Amino acid sequence: MASPTDEGAFKTPKNVRVRSFLGNGGTPVTIPASPFMKKLGCGTGVNVYLMDRAGKVNASPWAVKKINSKCATKQLAVYQKRLNKEAKLLQGINHPNIVGFRAFTTARDGSKCLAMEYGGEKSLNDLIEKRREDGLKAFPAANIEKVALHVARGLQYLHNEKKLLHGDMKSCNVVIKGDFDSIKICDVGVSLRLDENMKVLDPKAEYIGTEPWKPKEALEEEGGEITDKADIFAFGLTLWEMMTLAMPHLEMLEDEDDDNEDNEDDEDSFDEDAYYERLGTRPALDEGALGSSYRKMVELFYLCTEENPKKRPSAIQIVQALESNSLLAKTPSESVCPYISQHCSLGDLLNSEIGSLLLYMLSCCFE
């Protein structure tokens, strides 16, 4: 149940009558007040609650995203605009690897509620934190490969069919059901339209993202060219999260916390310049700590996190390679992937079923 500090906890509990935009004739939907719903999580400016629909015939629960009423007034309009946008986009999306739309409602007080499918999923980030707290190491390679394939399928659908850049790929925006039985992308509220060349349609559109997962082109002061490959960079870092149980570049913040245990007054111990310099780069990966079963995911991580976006594979190429069980490496060069150069020969690469993806990657090397 929600704690007393949750949104609406100090209001008189009551059901709020809302109007549903489901294309079903405007049938009213009753959304309980926040204190009557279990809080599943929160994001920037929003809280997510579990709406138990028990009592309705064959009714599965919903995840209800609501604007956090405690947000600063000047931010409320921004978050409501994002929620409106997400609802509109989700209504037109239908894919097994993207969380499904259920309803978009407006309460009498004017607050917005976006209802989405919910089957007991947990965020990948929560699973990463739990695994780290339990003293475990990287997820099994098979689990990482499954996440890679299913998320890549979702991105392929967004990029190629819907011409949408997700814009905020990270472990927090991937939800997992059971023992990796279902894997879905969520939170499309900051997505951007793509043109036929996979470039962001509106040159003035702002890439929101989340700082540690942003590619170099999204961090440039004058604004680099944003394409579908921005999602691919963040996708690669999401795989890195599963192999390291950490967040990109945030080890610097953790080091600062450790130092401050001995010297709490040292407010200048964190090297902010060094942190920002690392953003948009490929974080270090201890390949030696991973077995040979991780080889494919290691090379995929290296390819997706190339600084030059043109050298990153597209979502459709990733899907094709993973579905055909092909190698992804474009070259055994140590500058691309030290792991590959140490564990496989050029002959291994050339004899693999890499097909068109290898040819594409080789062509990128000579651009």
UniProtKB/TrEMBL annotation:
It comes from the Eukaryota. Residues 34-328 form the Protein kinase domain. GO terms for molecular function: ATP binding; protein serine/threonine kinase activity. The keyword DNA repair does not apply. CDD domains: PKc_TOPK (cd14001). Pfam families: Pkinase. SMART domains: S_TKc. The lineage of its organism: Eukaryota, Metazoa, Chordata, Craniata, Vertebrata. PANTHER family: LYMPHOKINE-ACTIVATED KILLER T-CELL-ORIGINATED PROTEIN KINASE, MITOGEN-ACTIVATED PROTEIN KINASE KINASE KINASE 20-RELATED. Keywords: ATP-binding, Kinase, Nucleotide-binding, Transferase. This is PDZ binding kinase.
